[in-house]
Structure formats: C-alpha cells, structure tokens
Amino acid sequence: MRTALTNPFSPGSDTVPDVWAGRTEHLGDWRDVVRPRRLAGLPERGRTILGEPGLGKSALVRRIAAEASRAGDWVTPQLRIPAGSDPLKLVARAVLDLAGQAGLPAARESRIATALARVEAVAVSGLSLTLRGAEGAEPFSALTDLLVEVGRAALEDGRVVALIHVDEVQNITNDKALSQLLIALGDALTYETEVAVPGGARVRRSLPLAVYLTGLPDFEDMAGTRKGATFARRFKTSTLSAIDVDALSEALQEFVLRGWEVAGEDGPGRVWMEPEAAALIAEVCRGEPFLFQLAGEQAWYAGSSSTVTEDDVRRGWRNAEREATAHVERVLERLPGRERQLLEVMAGLPAGDRSLTRIAEGMGFTRVSEAGPTAQRLDTVRGIIDRGRPYTFRHRAVEAYLTSDWPRL
User: Fold this and answer.
1) Nearest-angstrom CA–CA distance, 308 and 108
2) Which of 109, 139, 172, 402 is the most buried (most CB within 10 A)?
C-alpha cells in the first residue's frame, strides 16, 4: 500500500501537494477578496508573494490557479522566469494563449487583430522589439492592449477572471524589462471600461483581471525601491513565513482520524498515522512546507504496513537530515555577511536577552543604530526574524539549525 505510486507527499516538485498545510489567509484572500472584487468590477491590486526558498510560494499560487481553473477562469501556466531571459517574450506567449482561451483570434474587430499582431511580435523579439514611428511602439503597450482585450472578453462572459502568474520574478535583472513588465501588468489591472447598467446609465468598472507575482525577497528591492510608489499602489506584497504547528497537525488529521485512501492491488485501502507520528512530523519540519513534505515522504517510505508509526518518522527523517541541512544552508548562504552575522549573534544569546542592544554589542558595534537597518531588513524584507521584545526567529528552521543539533533528532 505504501509505495512510490501511492505516496501523497511531494517535496520540491513544484506541484500542488495532496497533503496541504496552512496558508488559509492567502487562499481566503483569493476566494473572498481578489476574485469577488474583480468579478464585480471593483479595483483590486495584484498580489506579490515573496519568501525564502522552501516556503511554498509557487505551490500556493499554483493551488490558487487550480481553484480558479476549476471555477472556469482563464489561467496562464506558472510562468517561471529563468535568469538572464527576456520576461516580455514569456509573458507575451502566455497572453496570446489567454487570448486564445477568450476566443479573440476569431474576433473581427480590427483593434483586436492589431493587438494580437503586436503581441506576436513581442513574443518573438521581446524587449528588443522596436517599431519606430509606430503608435504604441514599446512592448509594454502591446501587452497592455491585449490584456485589456482579454479582460473585455472575460467581462462579456460575466463569470470568469483571467489570472496571470509570473514566478521567479527576482531573476528579472534588466531594469527596463522589469519596468515594462510591471507597467504592462499594472496598467491592465487599473484599466477601467464603461458599461451600461439598468436604467440606461453608464458607469466605469475595472476588468476581471488578476495578477500574481512570486519570488525571493530580493524582488522587493528591485520593484519597490527602484520603481517607487507606482508598484506599491498596484501590487500588494506579502512575505511568507513558517507555518504554525497547529496548521501542520490539522493537515495530518485525515491520516489519524480516517486514514488516507490509496489504491491497492486488491482495491482501495487506507493508510493511517499514529498521533505521535503526526506530531513528530509537525515538529521536525519547523514550519517549512518543503521540509514538511520531505518528512512525510520519507516516513511513508520507511515502512510498508498500513500505519505510519513514530519509528517510521524517525527512520525516515534520518534519511532526510542531509537534505534538510542543505535546505537551511542555502537560505543562509544567500544572505549578505552582515545579515548572517546578526542571525548568528542573535542565536548565541539566551532567548530572553535577544534585544537589539545585545545583538549590536555582539556584532562589535559601538552604536545600537548600526545594527538597526540589518535587523529591519531581516524582519520586514526577508521574514526571518521578528523585532519584538525580545527579538525572535520567524524562520524556525534557521533558528533550530543555529541553536541546536537539528536536524538530528
């Protein structure tokens, strides 16, 4: 019953895992805020979801996209931006696919034909496209125009939202490309069209378009600092942190109470989980979605009975320790030297003494203010610490790695 084909855990596969934990706030934001407001013609900002590796940013938006698709919405695939690539080409191809879902290639209006032709040129040439002397020569205006046509088609349908998901946005290192992409998406989000309402009056409303950007925290500097207030007005940014233990335990309750249904040689069966096993998985992963899936996967493979035991979790986690260590080390290796130093000094202090004064002293500073900007960045941009009284770690796997023998049990 417990085989590779029936394992419901999927660490790092960029798919929506079958065993889902947490992120109810962001899922609820899509269901209760973004989609209803966009369908109603009310303005609503795009969403930017950032976080350190392993926190499930892409999986979260893939789940939102899957829910949107099931509701009948028009959805792009996950548009992952490779380092050094031209994002305008990739997004242009996706917008053309959205136009196909909307049936625009069959439309007779000349403006739609023109918009399609211009975006087809962007899909081929990207940022290097130049149409000197032509109206709307810049690639971003072509993308904006076609997104508006897609939005109008969705408006005519009356039931759907067109959702665009751009991933790994921190890889867009060309300032001009980033600016054009953000302006194209932002202009489409804020575009208003005039519609007739009962009684003969005409009002302006927003189009049913939604945009999600996902990536590493570095993107906030690239977009927020360099692009200024325009980005902040058009996109709402949130930084993911660890999932709390209660949400992780809730995700495993189906195993504990009803068993997880699997296909077997003799028909459907169920795999159960001891409460102690579920509690240990929630403990060792330290709130990291990637490590949660990794711990579950290895516990599944550690035995063959119809019940995942606490011993299965321990034996499976021993096989996962090296990967768990490498995962946290990758997070730390990305940090500039001063940020890494602050975390190490903070970890070396007793939990109750983690004040900015003590941390600054430990870093060798004569003034507390010298450590302030680094601490602020680790809190508000990276989401690794919380500058409370005392300072605490929000990234619990980093804390465990720096303060204990974790990942060893």
Assistant:
1) 60
2) 139
pTM: 0.89
Measured at the CA of 130, the angle between CA 129 and CA 133, to 5 degrees, comes to: 150
Which residues constitute the domain of residue 146? Answer: 24-239
Same domain, 165 and 48: yes
Residue 82: burial class (beta carbons within 10 Å; 0-12, 13-18, 19+): exposed
- Last residue within a domain, chosen from 223, 239, 255: 239
Domains of the chain: total? 3
Q: What is the pLDDT of residue 131?
A: 42
For residue 287, give both structure tokens.
């709130």
Decide if 212 contacts 164 (C-beta within 8 A). yes
pLDDT class of 229 with cuts at 50, 70, 90 = low
Give the pLDDT confidence of 155-169 residue by residue, as tens digits.
988 888 999 999 999
Q: Tens digits of per-residue pLDDT, 28-69? A: 999 999 999 999 999 999 999 999 988 999 999 999 999 999
Gap between the Cα atoms of 273 and 262, Å rounded: 13
